[in-house]
Amino acid sequence: MKILIISQWYDPEPTFKGQLFAEELVRRGHDVQVLTGFPNYPTGTLYPGWTMRIFHREVVRGVRVLRVPLFPSHDSSARNRVLNYASFALSAAVGALFLPRPDVAYVYHPPATAALPALVLALVKDVPFVYDVQDLWPDSLEATGMVSDHRVLGAVAWGMRRLYAAATRVVVLSPGMRTLLGGRGTPEGKTDVIYNWAYESDLGTNRDSTGVAVTTRPAELPDAFTVTFAGNLGTAQGLDVVLDAAEILRDDPGVAFVIVGTGLEEARLKQSAVDRGLEGVTFLPRRPVTEIGPILDASDALLVHLVDEPLFRVTIPSKTQAYLLTGRPVLMGVAGDASELVERAGAGLTFPSGDASALADRVRLLRTMSPEARAEFGARGRLFYDEMLSLRSGAAAFERTFERARPLRPWRLAVKRGADAAGSAAALVALALPIAGLAVAASRALGTPVLFRQERPGRHGEPFEMVKFRTMNDARGPDGDLLPDGERLTRFGSFLRSTSLDELPSLVNVLRGDMSFVGPRPLLMRYTRWFTAGERRRLDVRPGVTGLAQVSGRNTTPWDDRLALDVDYVRGLSLRRDLCLLVATLARVTRRSGVVVDAESIMQNLDDERRDREARS
Predict the structure, then answer these.
(1) Three-class DSSP category at 597
(2) Which residues contact 296 (CB under 8 A, 6 or more apart)?
(3) Rounded to an integer, what distance in angstroms lies between the CA atom of residue 574 and that of residue 568?
(4) CA 258 to CA 256: how far, in whole Å?
(5) Got the DSSP string for 39-86?
(6) Do 129 and 401 touch, CB atoms closer than 8 A?
(7) Beta carbons within 8 Å of 224's beta carbon, 6+ residues apart
(8) In the chain, N or C: fewer CB atoms in 10 Å?
């Protein structure tokens, strides 16, 4: 697969989805091209040895990289930040046009402006794109104080909704973030959760065969049970909780807290520790990721903490993965997804954000545990990282997402939708009289209402109301329950089903955009949970009035084969194929081939079949 990575930041700048990610995709057999800017983050000045020019092409360990010019900046000036983002977006949008057409584009967010090249590629070269949301806009813009004007924030929120809608698939870093985007209109079926990974080449490598760290304890660490926090020292981290916990543990000289890093709160925290006479707290200067490993390895526990804000409940701080990889017990003070991840991994203890007493209690508990019990926390964390969070597992998940996005080319879908709208409108006009006549006949045969309405899963599994002509009466047994379908199916209803005339009202669903003329048939809502991960691809497109499975056996095809045909249709999506399937459908309807008016009489329901299979396994 030809994959284009679009990211404003790339190695040698610090970024999670940089060279390691690209190299892993190359190792998995893909042709990877990177579109990025000249390195200037996080200082805002061009890295030594680099000169800005229109285009800079290079090949880095098998990865082709195109760098485009931008306005380098990373200070607190909103004007300069806008220039930085906008300059990259515009020059990358031009640069993208000079690259070979990829099968799929990947966009790393933030900033949201990095999506502009992908939008241009979608418009000009019909390229689907995957949008990787690492940071929620406008929430983070408001939380960091970068933007405070509510009109601007409202405009950004509107733009983000449009961007999520334009993306072929969306990737987020936590389940909570997927739920949150779902509440903002992005279908959860369109969104994949793929956890970030750590800088694996720089962390967790100094271990013996049993996983125990072999790094020499740095002399700057205190000779005590050491709890280390490493990272940005900002207001969001709420590190007063560390000082408060240290004060609670003041009488225990065997416990020490180490704070590694820098940030806006550094000076105030240091002064507060001095004023309070907290000898058990040590501040160390910021270390690059290549040098932090020995400190993490030598610590007895590693601390993550953020203040309790709604935005942070769906955030998993990046240090979490690094701590798990390091194989040390984790103390997690971030509510929501981050705490759930540590509990799921069995990698440490959690405590309420901002609760210094609880933090002190957890430290005491860890300290009283045997070294073997603490090592078990670390081992479980390391194993969980390898299986669920590693670069290898993350790249494999992205590969599956790219594969799902690949056939969903924007122009192809737009033309298909246009043909559906025009065709259904024309058909409704042309067939108005026959449809009215069938409605009258249905009314006389079955009474009112003449239409059957039922909720079915649409694109991305979003429910819609499907309409058809009624074919069954409402006869009930002595217990008041409806009789089986076969006993309620009338002679007139059998005629409608055998001729597929009961489907004519579904033209309204096609006109509204709920359905397409061709696509996987919309099954019952209760069936959706029984789809395998691969079978869920049938939900990537609008359901159809007819489809590949219908012309390949209609209702006589076993469920496994029918769903496999649906997925095959999505993988090979093309307008030409749709036309062929429409012709084949008309031929089968004319011949009444494969007609089964009561499908339940010859096949189990999908949920019953798979429930039985699950019970047998």
Answers:
(1) coil
(2) 203, 228, 230, 302, 322, 323, 326, 328
(3) 12
(4) 7
(5) S-TTTTSPPTT----S-EEEEETTEEEEEE------SS-HHHHHHHHH
(6) no
(7) 253, 254, 255, 256, 280
(8) C
Of all helices (H) and strands (E), which one includes residue 285? none
pLDDT value of position 47: 92
Structure tokens at 208: 């013996």
Characterize the bridge pairing of strands 451-457 and 463-469.
Answer: antiparallel
Assign residue 336 a region (left: φ > 0; alpha: ψ between -120 and 50; beta: otherwise): left
Please report, for residues 25, 99, 178, 191, 440, the alpha-carbon distance to residue 1 in angstroms, rounded to integers and kept in the order given. 10, 15, 27, 21, 54
pLDDT at site 492: 85
Q: How far apart are CA 524 and CA 542, in angstroms?
A: 15
Q: What share of the chain is helix, strand, coil (3-state, %, to 5)?
A: 50, 15, 35
Burial class (CB in 10 A: 0-12, 13-18, 19+), 273: buried
**339 Cβ neighbours under 8 A, 6+ residues apart:** 332, 350
Q: Is 487 helix (H, G, I), strand (E, B) or coil?
A: helix
Question: Which residues have C-beta within 8 Å of that of residue 308, sequence separation ≥ 6?
Answer: 335, 352, 353, 354
Q: For residues 617 and 604, what is the distance between their CA atoms, to the nearest angstrom?
A: 18
Signed CA dihedral, 547, 550, 552, 556: sign only: positive
Cα–Cα distance measured from residue 193 to residue 173, given in angstroms and rounded to the nearest whole number = 6
Cβ burial of 98 (10 Å; 0-12, 13-18, 19+) is exposed
Q: What is the residue type of 437? A: G
Exposed, middle or buried by CB within 10 Å (0-12, 13-18, 19+), for 370?
exposed
For residue 191, give the 3-state DSSP assignment: strand
Q: Return the structure tokens found at 569.
A: 């249709």
pLDDT digits (tens, 9 = 90+) for 161-200: 999 999 999 999 999 999 999 999 999 999 999 999 988 7
Bridge partner list, 61: none
Residues 6+ apart with CB under 8 A from 90: 116
The β-bridge partners of 283 are 259
Burial class (CB in 10 A: 0-12, 13-18, 19+), 276: middle
The CA-atom distances, in angstroms, between 293 and each of 195, 346, 472 are: 21, 22, 69
Q: Edge-to-edge, what's the strand order for the sheet holding 225-230?
A: 281-284, 255-260, 225-230, 301-305, 330-333, 348-350
- What is the CA 572 to chain-centroid distance, rounded? 24
Cis? peptide before 478, omega within 30° of 0: no
The burial class, CB within 10 Å (0-12 / 13-18 / 19+), for 387 is: exposed
Residue whose token pair is 């065709």 = 423
DSSP secondary structure string for all residues of 95-153: HHHTSPPPSEEEEEESSGGGGHHHHHHHHHH---EEEEESS-TTHHHHHTTS---HHHH
Q: Residue 110: is the preceding peptide bond cis (ω within 30°)?
A: yes
* Sites in the chain below the pLDDT cut of 50: none
